[in-house]
Predict the structure.
Amino acid sequence: MERITQYLLADHQRVGTLLAAATSSQIFDHEAFEAFRAGLLRHIAIEEKLLLPAARGARGGVPIERAHQLRIEHGAIGSLLVPTPDHALCAELATLLQAHDALEEAAGGVYEECERLLSAEQSQALLERACSFPEVPVAKHFDGQGTWRTAHEALASASRISAPRTLRL
């Protein structure tokens, strides 16, 4: 791999495979889910702490237009990682991630936009930093008041208004 977005695309595949493994049988695979959860939180951190700031820097301090939308969705995804998982929660996550990943991966998407802004050297440097990015600490699951179990609830909470219209569930 030579570019940060190649790494992020491969990581989408990796965490997607882990999510699928968690629900591939009637017996929920908690170990696969926990690997998915830790991997997804690390992936989001790489985007938030490396990719988006680099794109903002390349634009003279102005964030890319979809950065706010990504942050709302990252918040929603993170909130769905809080409660104890089951098949239904994983289905909500899969639905949300399918739309979210398309926003990043599609032609003209966020990854393509970032690559246009970054030189090959900048992208390579980000790739090296991403490869050595540490694991993100993961808290125990919590099922109390204020936890969300649907993508709609999580998005509405993350945006503090209604769910974004650009994300179709």
